[in-house]
């Protein structure tokens, strides 16, 4: 049985801990903040309750899943037994580089160090460790318990063996892993973010309103959510940060973030998390 450590207990971190624990892995969930860990465990319990209510999980499996998760506020203690670490901290380059320096120091020498980053270079993250062959991207989609994809990102130095292990591990979670190379935005966000940006430009130019744009894409293209609603869910600050990575990293003006998106982020309109974005969230 492989021991897993998850760094960060926000939306992605708690979802990742949830799926590993549900599939039988002992999980150390690590965050600097005890109250964030308490909130994460409550969220995981509620999301497991949805599965129980649907009849896809028994009460006994729910309890067993929760019983496999141990919360830690100390990174060194939390990763001491880990075979695989999945980092899902805030999307900030310096923060992630510091976490990987610490992980390299405290995780067992053979442990795989994965990042759930949506756009920061895996090669750059790997370069601050002494084990770049064991560093890889494991990009889960939100909501993690529901979405089937894991985008597996090979950094410049990631070994074939580690890639194969992470592909297999993702399958053990009931997910479909897809191998991609480490270039700005990988595949998921290189394609998703220009679509979201174009939806915002369409709104900015007055071609149509928020609901009209989302309705066209939902009903016309069978997307589960329109691009503006999805942007609110992802977080407008996150969308802006990813577009900047694409714009700078690929050097093509087609990725320039729409000025409306820039203004909304400056005004603190971040979507669901701030209560206001393209829609009002209560
Ligand atoms: N945990 C467990 N189950 C959950 C859940 C959670 N957090 N959230 C939803 N569910 C389950 C529900 O119980 C329900 O199950 P059944 O299908 O068995 O009934 C199912 O998911 C659908 O949920 P709802 O009926 O409440 O709502 P919905 O039909 O509107 O679907 C949605 C919700 C799955 C989020 C859907 O709207 C959707 O697919 N949206 C798009 C999501 C998406 O594109 N995600 C990727 C974002 S990009 C990203 O994550 C990466 C990045 O780098 C930016």
From TrEMBL:
Span of the signal peptide: none
One term of GO molecular function: 3-hydroxybutyryl-CoA dehydrogenase activity
SUPFAM superfamilies in the record: 6-phosphogluconate dehydrogenase C-terminal domain-like, NAD(P)-binding Rossmann-fold domains
Sequence ranges assigned to domain 3-hydroxyacyl-CoA dehydrogenase NAD binding in this UniProt record: 3-182
Class of the enzyme per the UniProt entry, highest EC level: oxidoreductase
Pfam families registered for this protein in UniProt: 3HCDH (PF00725), 3HCDH_N (PF02737)
Oxidoreductase among keywords: yes
InterPro entries linked to this entry: 3-OHacyl-CoA_DH, 3-OHacyl-CoA_DH_CS, 3-OHacyl-CoA_DH_NAD-bd, 3HC_DH_C, 6-PGluconate_DH-like_C_sf, 6PGD_dom2, NAD(P)-bd_dom_sf
EC number(s) reported in the record: 1.1.1.157
Domain 3-hydroxyacyl-CoA dehydrogenase C-terminal: 185-281
Keywords, ordered alphabetically: Oxidoreductase
Recorded family membership: Belongs to the 3-hydroxyacyl-CoA dehydrogenase family.
NCBIfam families: PRK05808.1
Record's protein name: 3-hydroxybutyryl-CoA dehydrogenase
Organism in which the protein naturally occurs: Hymenobacter guriensis
Classification of source organism: Bacteria, Pseudomonadati, Bacteroidota, Cytophagia, Cytophagales
